[in-house]
Write a structure and sequence with these properties.
5-stranded mixed beta sheet; about 25% strand; 6-stranded mixed beta sheet; 15 strands
């Protein structure tokens, strides 16, 4: 007969007791972290003697979130675990100083969704009507940072954002990539079979075209200024008994109290939009960075070739090249370039110096951590 002790069966009451005990420990540790964050604020204020203090450190937060994902052992996925820590960090930072974040509005847009993903929910949200208004809000100091879309994996670059950097003094301080999931939404008191119109932004209608052609071929599609506006119109129409549907995201669905008829209706499941965080400060190296440049090339044969050749020769990985009219001369162009690395890295400094010798103008728009979430 074995002398080993038999394992005590894990009953539901015992498991709930364990969960309650773990929750209590987690709560104690979160508050301990929050008190540490408050002390960080006190130290920063004391060291800088009342001058403008920067509490938000993009490179530090990127490093913390990367470590969270590296040491994660499951069963929660890496991204899910990082999102939990993202919100803890957001709440702790708000104790130091709540940040006001401007974004391309109105409330409920994917840009707001990206802002919440990057900064957490403990921020003061400031929706703006246009991309240039986001830039002005940050430039004036009315907002700490701004969030603007820069490119979509299916619809391409957002030219208005690129053009806003020409005369702006703002820096790119970060980036966030958001998987774009579109949902067909209606007011709770409306029946789907009664829908007469589907409202959404023109890009969202384009991104769901094949799905709409298959399942809603005879319903009129109406392009409006944003998905959030489409959701608001659907909610307003529903209160008066009109059967209007909207295509929008999760935030708009919750904000306007709508019901999902169908979820994730985008034609491409990998549909992703990249957003930029703009602010005033240069961001130190985080260990895994990206740099963006604006370059005005000289009008001479081989000008673009000689610019790009520097990247290859020094082993710097260029990840994006966009061309825009310069507006300074007829048929003149400027180039927007993204590459892997921080502008303070040795190889990157050599490339930038060579570019300055060969181009009419080189403007470093910013070095910033590669998107973690």
């Amino acid at each position: 007969m074995s002398n080993s002790k038999q394992a005590v069966p894990e009953t539901l009451p015992l498991l709930r007791d364990r969960i309650d005990s773990i929750d209590s420990q987690i709560q104690v540790l979160i508050n301990e972290r929050a008190r540490c964050a408050q002390k960080v604020a006190e130290v920063k204020l004391a060291e800088q003697g009342g001058e403008a203090v920067v509490f938000y450190r993009p490179e530090r937060e990127a490093q913390v979130l990367r470590r969270v994902m590296e040491r994660n052992e499951g069963p929660l996925g890496n991204e899910e675990m990082a999102k939990i820590f993202r919100q803890v960090m957001s709440s702790c930072l708000a104790l130091e100083k709540p940040m006001r974040i401007a974004f391309l509005g109105p409330e409920g847009t994917f840009t707001q969704q990206a802002a919440l993903k990057h900064f957490g929910k403990s921020i003061i949200s400031a929706p703006m009507a246009a991309i240039d208004e986001v830039f002005r809000e940050v430039e004036s100091g009315a907002a700490n940072y701004g969030v603007v879309p820069v490119e979509n994996s299916t619809e391409g670059v957002v030219n208005h954002t690129l053009d806003s950097f020409r005369d702006s003094r703002l820096k790119i301080c970060g980036e966030v990539e958001e998987r774009i999931h579109h949902h067909l939404l209606i007011s709770p008191n409306i029946h789907a079979e009664d829908v007469t119109h589907i409202y959404s932004h023109q890009q969202s209608l384009a991104q769901c075209r094949a799905w709409l052609d298959r399942y809603w071929p005879h319903v009129e599609r109406v392009a409006v200024s944003s998905n959030a506006e489409a959701a608001r119109l659907a909610a307003d129409a529903g209160r008066s008994g009109k059967a209007i549907a909207a295509i929008a995201g999760e935030v708009a669905c919750e904000l306007y109290g709508l019901t999902k008829v169908s979820a994730n209706i985008e034609d491409r499941p990998d549909n992703t939009t990249r957003f930029l965080i703009v602010g005033h400060e240069d961001v130190p190296q985080s260990g895994k960075d990206k740099t963006s440049l604006l370059i005005s090339a000289k009008n001479e044969p081989g000008a673009l070739y000689h610019l790009l050749e520097a990247f290859e020769r020094h082993g710097v990985d260029m990840t994006r090249l966009e061309t825009r009219p310069s507006l300074m001369s007829r048929w003149g162009y400027i180039f927007y370039i993204d590459f892997v690395g921080h502008y303070l890295d040795d190889a990157c400094q050599v490339v930038i110096e060579e570019l300055r010798e060969r181009a009419s103008e080189v403007k470093v728009l910013g070095s910033y951590p590669v998107a973690v979430l």
